[in-house]
Amino acid sequence: MIAPExxxxxxNIKKRTSHLWKFLDAEQKLREIDALEAQMGANGFWDNNxxxxxxxxxxxxxxxxxxxxxxxxKRIDDLDAMKELIEAGSPDEQAEFGAELSIQATAMLTxxxxxxxxxxxxxxxxxxxxIFSIQAxxxxxxxxxxxxxxxxMYSRWAERRGYTTELMDVQPGDTAGISKATILIKGENAYxxxxxxxxxxxxxxxxxxDSNARRHTSFCAVDVVAEVTxxxxxxxxxxxxxxxxxxxxxxxxxxxxTTDSAVRIxxxxxxxxxxxxxxxxxxxxxxxxxxxxxxxxxEKKMDEQRAEMDRFYxxxxxxxxxxxxxxxxxxxxxxxxxxxTGVSTSDTQGVLDGDLDRFINAWxxxxxxxxxxxxxxxxx
Length: 380
Known about the structure:
3-stranded antiparallel β-sheet; about 50% helix; Alpha-Beta Plaits; disordered C terminus; Methane Monooxygenase Hydroxylase, Chain G, domain 1; flat; 2 domains; about 20% strand
């Protein structure tokens, strides 16, 4: 016999996959793929290489959106066929293959979770790398230490997802930790996932810097922008910026710290400041700083067009009480709670070690505009 739980899992998988298929408008996308591929076989397709590459990029984007779900649907058919064979088999066969079916259904539920989340990452830059900044706020030394803890937390999260990180700039705190750090997180959909972390993060704990072992509250802000590719034309006249070079500080070794390799670019009109000092070469740091400035100015421009400038780049207010998106409480009890989605866990050590997907995925599910507009209810 098939366990009732396995039957419920299979029905849940079928229902959610059907919702996802409609949500993606997959039938239309498959027809569009066929039409675009037919055009690729036409005479003169490669006469304009730039146009051909854009065409191929569009085809590949559509395939990435729907082909994994199409393949998943075929596997559901295999589950149904296996279920029918088990029901018609002997008691021994039912026991043996019923357990295997349950294992497969459980694994497919986990895979379906990822397919659903991936379907929400449809923004223009969701597939891009992410420029990720951590800024210590209210709390002095405590916040500097909290910023250092967050730097480790996000580095571990990136490692868990198979992303690579590149340190762009780090400014040490006066006594401990860091006051600010900027890293480039590289990987598929890095910005799509990282944008969920933008906001103020609050830590409550017994201070390791307080000889009286009192409880302290610290705040740090996270800002995330997508790395802008060469496809986006963003011209920044050199007259609009001030470029300063100086000796690098902090980590980096003797070769970095004894040369005037650090570069700081200030965009005069907006007040945006970008610092890069991770490379020994001043030219490389300058190129990286220009890339980050370009990304931040483009994001600022998009925010203005969406009439949401205050949300990301305007007056963010104090990095302190009343602005936090997530609380990390280590004393007097242990809990991490996302104040936007209500998702919480008592596994604080796991979270600080990079286990952040539960929060990111919940935010993507709750905040996806297409999800809301189409009124598609994804079953948990």
